[in-house]
């Protein structure tokens, strides 16, 4: 993990050649303290609104424990949307994926309650995106912890270098998509044991859509909330619209607007997905 972990300098974040090389080699980079404490406090306020509470549903890998999530298609103009469209997020993800224009694919909030939140099955994000009509894995996700994330409360676990495997077959496991257990065991023999992405609020994990990752159950007394933003290259839009919505242009905003334009609730429809609309894994066996 250390080889792909970078600190944000006092003068502010900028993507370096070393970061780009680490992303290409490992499939991810972790940037420490990319967002300030004040920015994170304002971001968290948005998730204590009725708008979000009403859109939460439960998912599980078929086990006894589940986790809660909310998913939406449009960034909106609340502080969540400003973070999503901020220059430091969009330009970094764009450049890590090769420099082509991006659009916002989706956002989701993953919530694991203390001593009860369930695991998220091993998968590649492209395992979902492929099933929904995206032809190339020219996508990436941005994971922003809203709470301290560590092993016991179900932090992300990743297999560095697994993005080089290409897309793996996924099967339905409960409400989720998951890779084959036997193949996963062989991958671990070759690439090594998974590493824990233990993070603090303000840290940001950028990762490729083919990176294998999971998150364990929350057996701790602490909640674990995590915001995940997905981006795709505009030239790689889905060839059908049976699940993913049509592409809309991403209007990037300056980083300073996160503080100066703080708003807890969006005046633009974020297009939340309803529980019954989530059929993204229905075609898997």
Describe the structure.
The two termini are 34 Å apart. The strands form three sheets. An eight-stranded mixed beta sheet has the order 1-2-12-7-14-5-4-3. A four-stranded antiparallel beta sheet has the order 6-13-8-11, covered by helices on one side. The longest helix is centred in the middle third of the chain and has 11 residues. It has eight helices and 14 strands. The model has no long low-confidence stretch (mean pLDDT 93). The protein is of the alpha+beta class and 285 residues long. It is globular and about 50 Å long. Strand 9 and strand 10 form a beta hairpin.
SSE blueprint:
Elements lengths: L4 E3 L9 H10 L1 E5 L4 H10 L3 H4 L3 E3 L7 E6 L6 H7 L1 H10 L5 E11 L7 E4 L1 H7 L7 E7 L10 E3 L11 E4 L2 E4 L1 H11 L3 E3 L6 E5 L4 E3 L8 E10 L23 H4 L25
Parallel strand pairs: 1-2
Antiparallel strand pairs: 2-12, 3-4, 4-5, 5-14, 6-13, 7-12, 7-14, 8-11, 8-13, 9-10
Percentage of residues in strands? 15-25%
Overall radius of gyration:
17 Å
Structural class: alpha+beta
Got a strand count? 14
Shape descriptor: globular
Mean pLDDT equals: 93
Q: Could you tell me how far the N terminus lies from the C terminus, measured between alpha carbons in angstroms?
A: 34 Å
| Unreliable segments of 5+ consecutive residues | none
Order of helices and strands: EHEHHEEHHEEHEEEEHEEEEH
Largest sheet: 8 strands, mixed
Distinct helical segment count: 8
The side-by-side strand order for the widest beta sheet comes to 1-2-12-7-14-5-4-3
Give the fraction of residues assigned to helices.
10-25%
